Amino acid sequence: MAKEIEGKDIGVGKIADQVCADQRCPHHGHVKVRGSFIKGVVAASKMGQTVVVRVDYLHYVPKYKRYERRRSRIFAHNPPCVAAREGDRVTIGETRPLTKNVHFVILEKVNA
After folding, report:
1. pTM of the model
2. CB neighbours (10 Å) of residue 10?
3. 18 CB-side CA count, 13 A
4. What is the distance between the alpha carbons of residues 61 and 27, in angstroms, rounded to a whole number?
């Protein structure tokens, strides 16, 4: 009997429709998601299984009593069952360090 890999409910986002054998996938692998959850836009997807997610936020400047727009770029693991591309809005979650720079994993694509 062939054992099918079912997606597990991690408490955030929907379970991916596709099945993958990636060990770093939060739905089908052994990576646990904890810490912060961030929404952003995929800015670059030229690396193998890693994407760059751009996060826009407002920063308050007390001297001028105004807000300024800032952005940061976060490296995130892109599991094959999610397969996010440039321009997609995604939700990422914090995990243990996967590589030197990657500490987040994509949980789901967000519509709109």
Report:
1. 0.85
2. 15
3. 10
4. 40
